Amino acid sequence: MFSMQQDPLELTKKIIACESVTPSDAGSLKIFADLLSQHGFSCEEINRGQTKNLWAKYGSGAPVFLFAGHVDVVPPGADGWKFPPFVPTEDEGFLYGRGAQDMKTSDACFAAAACEFVSKHPQFKGTIVLLLTSDEEGDGKDGTQYALQVLSDREVAPDFCIVGEPSCTRLLGDTIKNGRRGSLNGKLTVRGIQGHVAYPKKVRNPIHSAAPLLAELSQTVWDEGLPPFPATSFQISNIHAGTGAVNVVPGECVITFNIRYNPKHTAASLEKQIEDMCRKYVWDFKIEWQESASPFFSEKPFFRNELAEAIKDVTGIKPEFSTSGGTSDGRFIRQWCPEVVEFGPVNDRIHKVNERIPTKDIACLSKIYYRILERIFLSEHDGN
Ligand SMILES: [Zn+2]
């Protein structure tokens, strides 16, 4: 086993020591820029507002390989930390600190791997790029989204991308995320005519008209799934109607719901389908829509299979592919790059107190990131 010139553990500690609560990078991007420039990367800041983004590039031509990550973290939160959250501390086989899993370790590991790779193979054919942002945990508008606006105008789109988000569930290497479901919220207001329950001709009961609509919505099979995505699911989360009095028909009924959907649908197609259903049952309604995340999926199997092999080469573990979990910047990058996956540490303590990572996983993760670079850029030479 090789050892990295730049020790990923030491680099992780330096980055955790930066108090980079969103959108501050607290100096962490300069640490990366200095390291990467020393290894021949050209580095550029793409900043907007308080958010900083670092773009680093080495080499030229295809294939273009992107490592993407964020250096910002969520606030450490209340008491209960065994060690101060911004003082990286090793204890009983773990490294503690805010960002140890989400996702400063990955940032350090892929930067160390990229530096190692370009010093060992300075003449490799292709391009390695890194994109680090300080606003992923916030609204993200000035982070990856903005950087991609700037970059997509002038840079060749990457062929492959690893977002270093913590993807594993139990052991480092057990899970690669190759997509995420979309999430759409709706707030449906069904209007009726309020009045006395004893005079049914003078009222229009919005609960009665909503009832068959809700029955249809809750029984609809939206699709059969789109492997590896599960079937699209619809859930009603709230129903509010009524004045509290037993003799009053209410004037309106408000229903909120959420749909988790796979890429067979778009937010627009679901909105139309549901509004059409509403028209069948209710005479006066409105829906306020809020798309909280669009789905992304990398259909092509080449890159995710190469990454799975790289993980197996280093850990002996055969990873599973998964599309579960919340959102990440992968959904934005996917619009620019055809093959995007997320791969990083175990995610059992993200955003919690006492966030930590097994110390041995740090060197291992960096080796996996190094190995995938070998598989992508050197495979012609060693006949893989
Ligand atoms: Zn994250």
UniProtKB/TrEMBL annotation:
Required co-factors: Zn(2+); Co(2+)
Pathway involvement of the protein, from the record: Amino-acid biosynthesis; L-lysine biosynthesis via DAP pathway; LL-2,6-diaminopimelate from (S)-tetrahydrodipicolinate (succinylase route): step 3/3
GO BP, sorted A to Z: diaminopimelate biosynthetic process; L-arginine biosynthetic process; lysine biosynthetic process via diaminopimelate
Keywords: Amino-acid biosynthesis, Cobalt, Diaminopimelate biosynthesis, Hydrolase, Lysine biosynthesis, Metal-binding, Zinc
Zinc among keywords: yes
Pfam families the UniProt entry points to: M20_dimer, Peptidase_M20
SUPFAM superfamilies (UniProt xref): Bacterial exopeptidase dimerisation domain, Zn-dependent exopeptidases
Cofactor notes: Binds 2 Zn(2+) or Co(2+) ions per subunit.
Entry binding sites for Zn(2+) 1: H70, D102, E165
Membrane-spanning ranges: none
NCBIfam families named in the record: dapE_proteo (TIGR01246), PRK13009.1 (NF009557)
Oligomer status and interactors: Homodimer.
Classification via PANTHER family: ACETYLORNITHINE DEACETYLASE, N-ACETYL-L-CITRULLINE DEACETYLASE
Protein purpose: Catalyzes the hydrolysis of N-succinyl-L,L-diaminopimelic acid (SDAP), forming succinate and LL-2,6-diaminopimelate (DAP), an intermediate involved in the bacterial biosynthesis of lysine and meso-diaminopimelic acid, an essential component of bacterial cell walls.
Family: Belongs to the peptidase M20A family. DapE subfamily.
Protein name listed in UniProt: Succinyl-diaminopimelate desuccinylase
Gene behind the chain: dapE
